[in-house]
TrEMBL record:
Active-site feature positions: 541, 585
Cofactor(s) required for function per UniProt: FAD
Gene Ontology terms, MF aspect: flavin adenine dinucleotide binding; oxidoreductase activity, acting on CH-OH group of donors
Family: Belongs to the GMC oxidoreductase family.
Keyword Nucleotide-binding: no
This protein's record includes keyword Plastid: no
Keywords, ordered alphabetically: FAD, Flavoprotein
Occurrences of domain Glucose-methanol-choline oxidoreductase N-terminal (ranges): 313-327
Binding residues annotated for FAD, in chain numbering: 276
Name of the protein this chain belongs to: Glucose-methanol-choline oxidoreductase N-terminal domain-containing protein
Matches recorded under Gene3D superfamilies: FAD/NAD(P)-binding domain, Glucose Oxidase, domain 3
Source organism per UniProt: Brassicogethes aeneus (Rape pollen beetle)
Pfam families, A to Z: GMC_oxred_C, GMC_oxred_N
Amino acid sequence: MILLVILAGVHCQNHKDLVEEYEDRISKAIKDTDTYTLDTDAYRYKPKSNEIKYFGEFDYIVIGAGTAGSVVASRLSETPSKRVLLLEAGKAPSTVTEVPQLAGQAAFSDYNWGFYSTPQKQACQGYKDNRCAFARGRGAGGSSLISYSVYSRFSFYDMQRLSNLTGYEWTIDCYKKSENFTQTNADAIIEQSAHGTTGPWHVENAQTNNVRSDAFRDANEECGQPLRDYNTVFHEVGVDNLQLNKKHGKRADTFTDFVMPVMDRSNLNVSLESYVVRVEIDAESKSADSVLFTKNNVLYRVKATKEIIVSGGTVNSPQILQLSGVGRPALLNKFNISVVQDLAVGENLRDHVALVITMSHNVTDEGVDLKTAVEEFLDNKGVLTAASVDWVAFYDSTRGEYPDMELVIMPNLPTPVPEMDAKLFNFAKEAMADMIASTPPKVFRFLAILLDTESVGSVSLQSDSPFDYPLINNNILSETEDLEKLYTLINIVRNLTRTEGFKRIDAKLVTPKLSACKGSEFDSKDYWLCVFRQFGLPGYHCVGSCPLGKDPKKGAVVDPQFKVHGVEKLRVADCSVLPFLIRAHTAATCIMVGEMVSDFIKNYILFL
Ligand SMILES: Cc1cc2nc3c(=O)[nH]c(=O)nc-3n(C[C@H](O)[C@H](O)[C@H](O)COP(=O)(O)OP(=O)(O)OC[C@H]3O[C@@H](n4cnc5c(N)ncnc54)[C@H](O)[C@@H]3O)c2cc1C
């Protein structure tokens, strides 16, 4: 009995210490990002001399411990006789990545490469120099370290298109293999048979329920949107509580879930803060033999006996391929890079388009102090367990079968956080001032996303230096259809405001008063198209820069087994291989790609 009392006392003390520790760590993470300046290039990795040191030999080298790369390294190292090296430019996860609510701060830290698009003509006019912020994760876990953690799978339509393209079936079984799902919100509608419960990647429901989210759910139901699980085979229109990648409220990035639990495998070697300069491909045999990378500003060569898998993501994988001589001769010749293989690398950059929509309401919230928020967080509840996102509704603008747009509600995002917004989105001064002036005191936000866009952009080298960032011309909103579709979303929001659900909280669409749009009648369609050109954002779901396909003459960079066309021992495994946009957030499908590439390498898929 006495022992039990003592143990309970120890538990309380430990819990109190843990709460205090998290309060300190979170405060520090917020303070650090206040003063952080994003990198503008990768010269921090430049070696001090050209001398190349030998790093050894491995069966497989995986470049990038990001969302897909972590899966590949984990799966390949399941075979004890195969030596696997995982190279990653960034660092291990930490508090700023572990606490989902700090996603904004994480995107303003060392965990973001800090890319920006080239100046845009049709979009991002309200951002400094007309350049869109183009966040990409850097670190063990990649973009899954800074994402909003929304777990979302492709539609049946995407599945059929990918199956037709590759000649083998893409199924939701591949999602289920990675998934470890736990229902943590009784209000969520879940089709249990569509979910996996034994995979490494944790999925839980959002649990930050509040009256604004309830109103959103009710408003959608009144408008005919069924309440249903959006992650089934069909992924149809409807409204549901979000499924998020988290474990007991903490972010479930892919390094933490796929690699950390198997770090004790003696055949798995992980080298962080290791920046890959290029893959060395033998010009005659066209075989990828080794990788050059820098670590602590020393240049290393590491040999691969079997294969090299490039998992640098949609921006860096094409950059690495181009620096290695795989790309269009016109570009490579400009920088005196010997051409190994002529392929359309970087020419098919595609992305969803996002818009933050502001809504006013009449609800007064009781604030939560940090201590309470941390206590709730450690109990897998409350605002810190999600990046402000809570419920989602998928819509179909074409009245076809599958959704092509969505609204994610951010019910708790505080009323303008000018400095954070300005930093995150790169707002120009005048646009920011207009935005603040037009925002009422009580607001919530929607993240509106177009899931099927027409615009095509590119990623290409800026110079022959691996330490210069590549040029990203995302070219969003260059096609009129995309602008028109965004306007459909505004009309959907207007319809929601007419429902009893939204009237309950007096939810109204806030049309920002922008000086740049004063040439059009306020709140008219033309006015909104101008708002989209000012504030439309890349959806951060970029794909397609190393597209999958059978025919390189039609632009394919990798074949259906993810092998680079015309080059031996070289594959790409990340979101860059998806040749077209899927009608979903992208992380889960990047993981599916990682699973499939690993299966191909291990010869589990023999039916081709
Ligand atoms: C802010 C943000 C929010 C998002 N929110 C969501 C969401 O809620 N749900 C969702 O499904 N998707 C979301 N996404 C998209 C999703 O995160 C990405 O599509 C996905 O994670 C990309 O995975 P990947 O494997 O292609 O690349 P990444 O995960 O980006 O991995 C690439 C890795 O390669 C490393 N690397 C690159 N170059 C080199 C080099 N030269 N040497 C060594 N290492 C290198 C990088 O550091 C990185 O770790 C979001 C993305 C962002 C940026």
